[in-house]
Amino acid sequence: MIAAPHTSNWDFPIALAVMFAYKMNLNWLGKDALFRWPFGGFFKWLGGIPINRSKPGDVVAQSIKAFKDKVKMVMVIAPEGTRKKARYWKTGFYHIANGADIPIVMGFLDYIRKVGGIGPSFMPTGNIDIDMKSIQEFYATITGKFPEKSVPAMIAPRDT
User: Can you give 51-72 as a three-state secondary structure string?
Assistant: First the structure.
C-alpha cells in the first residue's frame, strides 16, 4: 500500500489511527534507527520492519521474499522516502509489488479535506511508466499537511 503524501511527522500517528479504524494489521518499513531502545519493541509490535537504507536494492529482495513466505500481509510504503522535499518518488514499492505479484493499493491522507483512507488498487503491468500515470491521476488531488514538501507522483528519468 502506498502511503502518500508523506510531508509531516503527524502522518504516522494519523495513519495508525486510520489503520485501527479499518481494523487492519499492517507492516511498514522504517529506518533502522527507529527500532532502537526504548521504542524498538513498540514499533515492531505496531508492524514495523527495520531497514538499512544504505542498501536499497536488498530491501526490495527481502520484501519480495517476505510476501512469498507469508500467507497474508499488507506492507505500507511511503514512496517519497522522506518528509523533506524530494524531486522524485522512489520505485521500490513498485518493484516489490511487481516482483511479488501483488496489487498496489493507494492509501492517502488528505489534510485539506481532513480525510484518510484507501483508494483504488491495481496489479502492476511491469511497465512502470504506464502504471505511474494511474498513480499520478489518483494523487493529483490529494494534499499533504505541508503541500510545499509534497512530491508529485513521478519517478526519476531513466536511460532507455
Answer: ECCCCHHHHHHHHHHHHHHCCC
Phi-psi bin for 122: left (phi > 0), alpha (psi -120 to 50), beta? beta
Give, in order, the Cα–Cα distances in Å from 51 to each of 2, 48, 120, 137.
17, 9, 27, 30
Query: 66, 130, 142, 74: which is closest to 104 by C-alpha?
Result: 74
- Kind of pairing, strands 48-51 and 27-31? parallel
Sorted by where each begins, the domain ranges of the chain are 2-29+55-149
pLDDT for 71 equals 79
Give the span between the Cα atoms of 121 and 50, in whole angstroms: 26
What distance in Å separates the CA atoms of residue 129 and residue 33, rounded to the nearest whole number? 33
What's the whole-model pTM score? 0.86
* Residue 121 CB partners (closer than 8 Å, separation 6+): 103, 104, 105, 106
In the three-class reduction of DSSP (H, G, I as helix; E, B as strand; rest coil), residue 138 is classed as helix
> Across 43-57, 81-95, 123-137, which has the greatest mean pLDDT?
123-137
Give strand ranges (E) for the chain. 2-4, 27-31, 48-51, 75-76, 104-110, 115-122
